[in-house]
Amino acid sequence: MTTNHEPIRDIAYLSHIELLTPKPTESLEFFRDLLGMEIVHREGQSVFLRGWGDQQLYSLKLTEEGQAGLGHVGLRAYSQQALERRAQDIEQSGYGIGWSDGDYGHSRSYQFMDADGHVLEVFYEADKYVTPDHLKPGLKNQPQKFSARGASVTQLDHINLFSSNVDADSTFYRNHLGFRLSEQAITDEGKQTTAWLHVTNKSYDLAISLDKSGAQGRFHHAAFKVESAEMVLRAADVFLDNGIFIEAPPNKHVAGQTMFVYVYEPGGNRIEVCSGGFLIYTPDWETVTWTPEERKKGLAWGTPLPSTFHTYGTPNTEK
Amino acid sequence: MTTNHEPIRDIAYLSHIELLTPKPTESLEFFRDLLGMEIVHREGQSVFLRGWGDQQLYSLKLTEEGQAGLGHVGLRAYSQQALERRAQDIEQSGYGIGWSDGDYGHSRSYQFMDADGHVLEVFYEADKYVTPDHLKPGLKNQPQKFSARGASVTQLDHINLFSSNVDADSTFYRNHLGFRLSEQAITDEGKQTTAWLHVTNKSYDLAISLDKSGAQGRFHHAAFKVESAEMVLRAADVFLDNGIFIEAPPNKHVAGQTMFVYVYEPGGNRIEVCSGGFLIYTPDWETVTWTPEERKKGLAWGTPLPSTFHTYGTPNTEK
Amino acid sequence: MTTNHEPIRDIAYLSHIELLTPKPTESLEFFRDLLGMEIVHREGQSVFLRGWGDQQLYSLKLTEEGQAGLGHVGLRAYSQQALERRAQDIEQSGYGIGWSDGDYGHSRSYQFMDADGHVLEVFYEADKYVTPDHLKPGLKNQPQKFSARGASVTQLDHINLFSSNVDADSTFYRNHLGFRLSEQAITDEGKQTTAWLHVTNKSYDLAISLDKSGAQGRFHHAAFKVESAEMVLRAADVFLDNGIFIEAPPNKHVAGQTMFVYVYEPGGNRIEVCSGGFLIYTPDWETVTWTPEERKKGLAWGTPLPSTFHTYGTPNTEK
Amino acid sequence: MTTNHEPIRDIAYLSHIELLTPKPTESLEFFRDLLGMEIVHREGQSVFLRGWGDQQLYSLKLTEEGQAGLGHVGLRAYSQQALERRAQDIEQSGYGIGWSDGDYGHSRSYQFMDADGHVLEVFYEADKYVTPDHLKPGLKNQPQKFSARGASVTQLDHINLFSSNVDADSTFYRNHLGFRLSEQAITDEGKQTTAWLHVTNKSYDLAISLDKSGAQGRFHHAAFKVESAEMVLRAADVFLDNGIFIEAPPNKHVAGQTMFVYVYEPGGNRIEVCSGGFLIYTPDWETVTWTPEERKKGLAWGTPLPSTFHTYGTPNTEK
């Protein structure tokens, strides 16, 4: 049990996400052929995929549905005790849904909803990835061959949720899951418009952005990592050559200082390919706060993101 | 207090090292002009330096001494309680030296020796870096301007100690400091020849290599990080142009999969400039073990490191 | 003399430009400290600079003047005969100014004006760069140490002139100097709005853009090359950190497919740092023509350049 | 006709090579799946392939044969007159074989042998590449989609021939084909051991190395270009993951300063994946000469190439 004054450190990392798509074939082609992920399993209306560097069995569950959006987010606990602690805490907080028997690739998980209604699960016991022969890498400390196909994404990096109340949601993730607030953008009144939170040494594993549409529980984007800024540029070329809509061309974020390119996968979900960004090692990191005045400068090198970046999410409520 | 069955997680990261040099002027020029570090303080026979991305005040204390080698290693605890726990545990284990009043930039620290006799200290309270005006960066979530000088190293990445008994030392770091064993190279008899250990998400923060010379407490190398493989190549060009001895040209390590270049700074200490490598997120990572047979293949792409890599350390006992 | 049906191939490359600046101190600091160029000579109101990879003595003559703009463009002929042929041809065409005694670093040159009134000179005999000891490189087939300072630009890459009549100017460069038209952007009526022309294997050494201001002989920008896309991003960081106005952040051009970042040096001239782009080897390259419809798509990955890119030039007539 | 004192400038570039392989299936898989080339045609025992950036129809003719080696080298003339001039000159010099009716993709060519017996052809008229729909790129000034498969090589860059008499061969290429000598390595007696020659702005399109085996007309290697040093490292990973023999891991050449990785394709021919290197613009470039003493330093950053690099060629006479 953690003591009163020591931080919760029970979540190891963001393990997987489930994305919903009304165009399962086209979405699958996007993730497999253009991002370069591998299919590890099919079950019901779902296909499970992994990046070549994902240490767990899969990082993406792609499920056919009537409209695009987030199915759920999977968080991996550090240990069985850590899982029990989180389940008990969330149960008591009133956000709990309850224990499930698990899903393909992992044992029982505790399911819950965040303040804005996104569905999450936390689990510990999970099946290891057994590399098939044709994907065996040259170095055995690597889970799988470098995919060398399309953007060749390494692994799931982070997610960004849309929320009707960023303050409430970021507080939930901090208080009940042990996320720490790396950076935040606020209004002149001090309300959060974006919160960047981390549980690993990455400067963020989770971002939460203000959804002004009035909707709840919407999804902003999922980001898959590549190994360098150059590979982000390369990914943009792959998207350009293959007719994928590029919402924002490669550029550098202020928060986190990651290089990015944003596209919409054929099912409609916004996907980022990213690289770089700093790691946070210091235990007394002070949250960096960006004012509206500072945010007006746009991205790191001075241009703004397109306006759709602040309004478009899935499900798309503006159709 | 941690429970019996949960891992020690009290060390946040490797904060600084003290290197000894018999050529203080030339060594300082190396770190400042060729690695691109900044001087933050001078005191007695020591100069304190930082990389532009170091989150703490400094990562290198460079001290004039009769011969090259390691002064000490500074570890930052996660919290004051974490510091007290480690001090108490090490005290009881018999490795302790005792509390010091601190050093430039940090408060009281607990000092101790590892199994092979390297001196370390652990501390929590530390002064923050206050960026001088001429080094103020464009983005305030960055501690300092990108240095844009020489190899422009970002920050201290890891250290590698020589040890007369790798098993004993890696056990010490695991049991008393909470390091986890990412990878190891072993003899046919199962004794460790190199151990790679981590406390952050990096695949290693500390490596320990077998010193066959019979000496104890020697230093193998310190590694400073750059942001990409390309910048490792660039660093090699800087070293070539400026007459620095390149012991091993840029190549890719098997363990950790980092890109590297190894040089001797003018004082004689081996310095690595590195990039890349994977992060470990999964809480049930299984130590990767490399056999002598596997190690014969050399580096990732098939050439060996030079033989000096396995014999040369500081102080240089082979003179 | 070339035969009737064979192309003119008398110009070797773009050797240097003279830029005028009303802020000579600040401009010099920009080129030396932020682009990483070296001063090779000072004479009168001029400073002569070179990139570390420039094969000639200098590529930039920076001259104090009341307002920013282009002094002149220096073209190097392939041989003494080639120079005589060009001088004779231009003399006959009516564009000639006449022979000069040369300038610092090169012998007599033939001076002339293009159709829009930009001043150029063509010369052959030139002094070689003698590398001073402190800049001697590790490899003697490199003219100078890698500068490892600021953006560390390699060399002058290309220039872009503003012209009141692009068709007339591109015809002049093709007919009298042997430039070939790699790509062009045209209006619906077929008039050129930009022409990209090459004399080397680069896809362009010279671009000419439509100046709608009514002015003549204005300068659009000069581009200095770095070795990779990543170094363009790095240059943008250097500009951001040092308060240089970034007109257009790193992105990829459609024409030539170069990565770029555009800034205004303190004197007001637009400067590009660029990398990449394709080389043209095939002797029967067909000019690629971009229609207004195609140009609407913006840059390679889908965003437009800022509107100032199409209006701002030096001297700045819009003040 | 060129005048007495002006250089021959009749060859535009190295257009294609024909490689012989005793393992046509495995070799084809190597070039298509691991280098990422596209098949454009099959005819008899040959398959014709191209890199995504090749401006001509194909750059590699892969032909089944009893043993590995060079079939022939294809050079593209600048014009029909240039072709006639070269044919006439070579015919008179006694090296000529005679006119052929052409091959897949190009019209009549003049065939000849260099001093060491390698077969070459020079031609001008050639079919253009018509991009099939599934390979149409996003930008029409690019011949084909970026391949995004394996090493994704851009195009054929240069070839290296083994020769029993480098001086004789380099003289042949200079006097009869207009190649210029960029760099050379010589013995203490002044005899060439390697010659690097160019016809484009690249620092070399052709290298000739001393074959001490006594054999004649052997092949050393062909190099395919990628866009950055990072992609050379990436190529090495692809080779490692797929069991291709890496003769020399990524490193930097002294001559030309190119980054490289050398492998043997399954048929036995040495293949290089390269990037970078400088361009030669200055018309009065002075040949850089490397002495045996200087060559002892090895590669740019100080290690030697493996000894096989100086002995192994195809056909392999040492079996």
Provide an overview of this structure.
The structure is a homotetramer of 319-residue chains. In chain A, β6 (96-100) and β7 (109-113) form a beta hairpin. The first copy, chain A, has a nine-stranded mixed sheet with strand order 14-15-16-13-9-12-11-10-17. In chain A, 17% of the residues lie in helices and 34% in strands. Chain A has a single domain, classed as 2,3-Dihydroxybiphenyl 1,2-Dioxygenase, domain 1 (Roll). Chain A has helices spanning 24-34, 80-93, 166-177, 229-241, 292-295, and strands at residues 11-21, 38-43, 46-50, 60-64, 69-77, 96-100, 109-113, 119-123, 155-163, 180-186, 192-198, 206-210, 219-225, 246-252, 258-264, 270-276, 288-290. Chain B binds chain D through residues 228-230, 233, 236-237, 239-240, 246, 248-252, 259, 261, 299-303, and chain D through 228-230, 233, 236-237, 239-240, 246, 248-252, 259, 261, 299-303, 306.
